[in-house]
Structures are given as structure tokens and as C-alpha cells.
Amino acid sequence: MMKSPTVLAVGGAYIERRGHVLGAFVPAASSPGTMREEVGGAVFNALRCAVRRGVSGSLLSVRGAPRSAAH
Q1: What is the rounded CA–CA span in Å between residue 14 and residue 70?
Q2: Do residues 38 and 16 touch, judged by C-beta distance below 8 A?
Q3: Torsion angle of the four alpha carbons 5, 39, 62, 57, in this order, in degrees rounded to the nearest 10
Q4: With CB atoms 3.0 to 4.6 Å apart as the test, which of 1, 12, 30, 57 could cross-link to 41 if both were Cys?
Q5: pLDDT tens per residue, range 15-46
Q6: Would the pTM of this model clear 0.85, i.e. be above it?
């Protein structure tokens, strides 16, 4: 039996915030919509894809918050 490859990914993982306007966008006005948050980052996303394909993986990343969330 072939052993699954193991990958150590080193890099950033952070919270991605995405907004979606419901209806027509009006500049300089309050527009109703939705916000979504999920973990993202180039290294995290690449490792997630590899794990979905059968690779055993670990992530080494710093812990913290982006400036926008630190206030």
C-alpha cells in the first residue's frame, strides 16, 4: 500500500471578509447586503486543496489579527 505524502505548509492564514450588495449599488449611500467570513490565505487555500486530494498536511502560521480587526 502506498503511503500518503505529507506536506508542511508555512505561511499566512487569516479571516477573509466578503460583502455582497443586495439590489442596485448606489455610491455614497447605505446599501443593504450580506457579509461572509471564512478562513483564507494563499498557503491555507493551497494546503486545503492538497488535503482534499489525499495529502496529509500541517500548517505553520503566525497568530494575530489584521489591523482592521485590531481596533
Answers
A1: 13
A2: yes
A3: -10
A4: 12
A5: 888 999 998 888 888 888 999 998 888 899 99
A6: no
- Dihedral sign computed on CA atoms, order 45, 48, 52, 54: positive
Residue pair 54/4 in contact (Cβ under 8 Å)? The answer is yes
Nearest to 43 by CA among 20, 59, 21, 19: 59
Buried b / exposed e across 4-28, counting CB within 10 Å, b at 16+? eeeeebeeebeeeeeeeeeeeeeee
Cβ neighbors of 24 (< 8 A, separation 6 or more) are none
pLDDT band at 13 (very low <50, low <70, confident <90, very high): confident
Look up residue 32 and give its DSSP letter: -
